């Protein structure tokens, strides 16, 4: 399970169709999805393909602020398998936010390999 997210612009190069020029690409494990849900950023990470980066800036800022305010609550959601953690998830969001602020009119590409139902079963196992 992982999340690939990026920013791109479409450019008319004179050919028969627009070309996508990628400005930012990142990947992080989906094992931290409970943190992202708690922070309110899950949907913008997994379901914002084609949206302008400026639209998700306030959501990312709010999510980051909450994660930084409640470190213990989020750290408690670290996956026990060691694939991903609070620090990495927060760093990933900071990097994405910086990219969105740098290129606010860029479009988002998002490809999350997330099977939420299976992931929820995994998280339930961790809590046993």
In words, what does this structure look like?
- With 128 residues, the protein is of the alpha+beta class.
- It has one domain.
- It has 6 helices and 3 strands.
- It has helices spanning 33-39, 42-46, 57-69, 71-75, 86-102, 116-126, and strands at residues 2-11, 19-29, 107-112.
- A 3-stranded antiparallel sheet has the order 2-1-3, with helices on one face.
- Strand 1 and strand 2 (19-29) form a beta hairpin.
- The two termini are 21 Å apart.
- Mean pLDDT is 88; it is low at 113-128.
Structure, briefly:
With 128 residues, the chain is an alpha+beta fold. It has one domain (2-114). It is 45% helix and 21% strand.
Tell me the layout of helices and strands.
Blueprint: E1 2-11, E2 19-29, H1 33-39, H2 42-46, H3 57-69, H4 71-75, H5 86-102, E3 107-112, H6 116-126
Antiparallel strand pairs: 1-2, 1-3
Helix pairs in contact: 1-3, 3-5
């Amino acid at each position: 399970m992982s999340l690939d997210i990026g920013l791109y612009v479409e450019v008319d190069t004179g050919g028969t169709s627009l070309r996508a020029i990628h400005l930012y690409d990142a990947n992080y494990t989906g094992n931290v999805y409970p943190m992202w849900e708690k922070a309110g950023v899950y949907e913008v990470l997994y379901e914002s393909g084609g949206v302008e980066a400026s639209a998700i800036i306030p959501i990312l800022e709010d999510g980051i602020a909450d994660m930084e305010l409640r470190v213990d609550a989020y750290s408690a959601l670290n996956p026990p398998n060691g694939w991903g953690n609070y620090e990495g998830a927060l760093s990933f969001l900071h990097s994405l936010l910086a990219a969105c602020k740098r290129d606010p009119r860029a479009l988002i590409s998002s490809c999350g390999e997330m099977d939420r139902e299976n992931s929820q079963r995994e998280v339930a196992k961790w809590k046993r």
